[in-house]
From TrEMBL:
Topology term for the membrane: Single-pass membrane protein; Single-pass type II membrane protein
Protein localization: Cell membrane
Pfam family for this entry, one: ExbD
Domain of life: Bacteria
InterPro entries: ExbD (IPR003400)
Similarity comment: family membership: Belongs to the ExbD/TolR family.
Protein's name in the database: Biopolymer transporter ExbD
One GO term (biological process): protein transport
Keywords assigned by UniProt, alphabetized: Cell membrane, Membrane, Protein transport, Transmembrane, Transmembrane helix, Transport
Length: 131
């Protein structure tokens, strides 16, 4: 008399609990990613518009050397002096500057000038050399 064993191990895997977890994670990341506001600079990209462009006589040039020296209209300035000049410039109508770093200038010096321009609501155009 042969006794049959009824306890067979099933080789199937139930995926329903795994898909539930994946959907919950997906919903969590979708909700949290929309709440995170990026802390970035508001850059204005060039466009082809017919609006009046500021003349070059009104645009001041801020040159940054590789050693971290700042030059406003070819006059050497410290960062605090440059901040005072930006404050005075912000009082004029539609203030604009051109930020032109030398090749190889560390990014922190450029960001310092961009931060001053953003703080005093001065339009800044970053002019870099072509490689």
């Amino acid at each position: 008399m042969g006794i049959k064993k009824r306890n067979k191990v099933s080789a199937q895997f139930n995926m329903s609990s795994l898909t539930d977890i994946i959907f919950l994670l997906l919903i969590f990341f979708m909700l949290t990613s929309s709440l995170v506001a990026p802390n970035a600079l508001n850059l204005k990209l060039p466009s082809s518009s017919r609006s009046a462009q500021p003349s070059t006589s009104q645009v001041d040039d801020v040159r940054i050397s590789t050693s971290g020296s700042y030059f406003l209209n070819n006059k050497r300035q410290s960062l605090s002096d440059l901040e005072q000049q930006m404050r005075q410039l912000s009082r004029s109508s539609k203030p604009s500057i051109i930020i032109s770093p030398d090749k190889g200038t560390p990014t922190e010096y450029v960001v310092a000038v961009m931060d001053l321009a953003m703080r005093y609501k001065v339009n800044g155009v970053l002019a870099t050399e072509k490689d």
